Amino acid sequence: MEKQILALQVAHILGEEYRREWVQQQIETPKQSNHGDLAFPCFPLAKSLKKSPHRIAEEIAAHLKHPIFKEVQTLGGYINIFLDQGFVAEHALNQFFQDPEAYGTHEFGKGKTVVLDMSAPNIAKPFSMGHLRSTVIGNALSNLAQTCGYETVKINYIGDYGTQFGKLLAAYLKWGEEESLRQNPIQELTRVYVKFHHASKDNPSLIEEGREWFKKLEDNDEEAVALWKWFKAVSLEEFEKIYKLLGITFDSTRGEAYYNDKMTATINMLQENGLLEKSDGAQVVRLDEEELPPCLIRKSNGTTIYATRDLTAAIDRKQMYDFDEALYVVGHEQTLHFQQIKHVLKKAEFSWADQLKHVSFGMMLQDGKKMSTRQGKTVLLEQALQEAISQAAKNIKEKNPELKDAQKVAEQVGVGAVIFHDLKHDRRNDVEFSLEDMLTFEGHTAPYLQYTYARTVSLLEKGNFDYNNPVTDVQTESAWGLIKTIRLFPEVIEKAYKAYDPSKLARHLLDVARHFNKFYAHTKVVGSEEEQALLSLIYAVNYQLKEGLSILGIQAPENM
């Protein structure tokens, strides 16, 4: 509210040449409280107005007047605004209590659909920590989109096709053990796959065997198809255990192989549009104008590749869902691939090609190095989750041995810790896997947020807070930092979705918890003269923490 008011007044003073939206983008939040609550830098105006930033600041400040502005100062080319704390506090809480369930929601996505391609583990491989990133980032983005009014479709696009399955078939037929596969399918399939990778370094002919088996799979060879279906069935069973622990569901689970009988239409369409060219026996779409390498559509041996299936899948999804945005939550190493897909569709004159967006993210590292199934160097996600739950249970037993439903709470804390450890990072950055860092009850962790939420629940119970008759006139100065933070929730939700970056919400929740704990450490609540007003504020914190964690895909236990 206050940013809009300031932007409107500054834009009016500057004249029609300066739009309110531009002015609002320039407004900052000072890091030091003695510099005010809002700041407008006048440096970008100096060249066009041919005046010093300091003089511009003084001239604009002289005309700024509003009941919400307690004081207006200028300092070194900045206009610093000190807000009326009582006015802002009452307005923020009134806005929240008008409809708590609607607080933070938006309608700019109303009537629009977002399709999210997310998670996408490969069958016959372990669900590693590397797959966690796509899964939890995609789920959080879906929740953010829904909070902004969008309809969402979460698609788990299983990796169940490609040359790696030819290698796996060859590896299993050479070294696989049927009994081991039945008892521990993913472990056995991983064992033979890793063995194939190492053996092929000394025996390159194995690579050709893998290609031959993939060609058999494409040609519907009975033995190849039967083994492939078996590998897929046991893999999906194992994946479902992970998704259940994470509390994540999908609207569609569909593998790449679903598009096998649909790719011919895509290839024919590219041919009819004059886009396919021969290159060393293969078929490609050239992208010279975009300064990109050619997009390979069909190999010289007649087999298709990932790009062929992704083009087909994009066309199919547009026809099925008529999406307004299609988000591919996939690691940054696939950036070139998605650039090629988008430009091939544009060359084929699909007007919606620009609706495809690659939401890239960094790698999950172990000891500073990329995890790799082929190298046999990876952390299994199910193992990590179970270890996190076990450690959480141990922590809870030490801190609160009488806690009811301790195992359920341990699951909420352990799983939440793993999810939040990922989401608190800017998605573009790499993340170092560390169970110890995830589970501490202090610092930037989910347990810290969950513990803070449980504390607010306890305070509301002790104070017998009257949810139906909140008091919004909070006069305690120690609450100002907390009030300034919680009122940003709607803005944070919008920014987090538009940037496709859940870490903006994660960091906001940490700020809320930090300000709340600082406020609570210096303020008596239960039994004070302002008890009901302070409890009203605490309920706003309570609701925001629970809702924010829920959007991130994390549960908030009421007792810890």
TrEMBL record:
Motif segment ('HIGH' region): 121-131
Per UniProt, residues of the DALR anticodon binding domain are 449-560
What the entry lists under InterPro entries is as follows: Arg-tRNA-ligase (IPR001278), Arg-tRNA-synth_N (IPR005148), Arg-tRNA-synth_N_sf (IPR036695), ArgRS_core (IPR035684), DALR_anticod-bd (IPR008909), Rossmann-like_a/b/a_fold (IPR014729), tRNAsynth_Ia_anticodon-bd (IPR009080)
Q: Which GO terms describe its biological process?
A: arginyl-tRNA aminoacylation
SUPFAM superfamilies (UniProt xref): Anticodon-binding domain of a subclass of class I aminoacyl-tRNA synthetases (SSF47323), Arginyl-tRNA synthetase (ArgRS), N-terminal 'additional' domain (SSF55190), Nucleotidylyl transferase (SSF52374)
The protein's superkingdom reads: Bacteria
- Protein name in UniProt: Arginine--tRNA ligase
Give the family from UniProt: Belongs to the class-I aminoacyl-tRNA synthetase family.
What taxonomic classification does the UniProt entry list for its organism?
Bacteria, Bacillati, Bacillota, Bacilli, Bacillales
Identify a single GO molecular function assigned to this protein: arginine-tRNA ligase activity
Supply the Gene3D superfamilies for this chain: Arginyl tRNA synthetase N-terminal domain, HUPs, Isoleucyl-tRNA Synthetase, Domain 1
EC number(s) reported in the record: 6.1.1.19
- According to its UniProt record, where is this protein located? Cytoplasm
Can you name a GO cellular component term? cytoplasm
What range(s) does the Arginyl tRNA synthetase N-terminal domain occupy? 4-83
According to UniProt, the reaction catalysed is: tRNA(Arg) + L-arginine + ATP = L-arginyl-tRNA(Arg) + AMP + diphosphate
List the keywords (alphabetical): Aminoacyl-tRNA synthetase, ATP-binding, Cytoplasm, Ligase, Nucleotide-binding, Protein biosynthesis
On assembly, the entry states: Monomer.
Which NCBIfam families does the record match to this protein? argS
Which Pfam family, giving just one, matches this sequence? DALR_1
Q: What is its main location?
A: cytoplasm
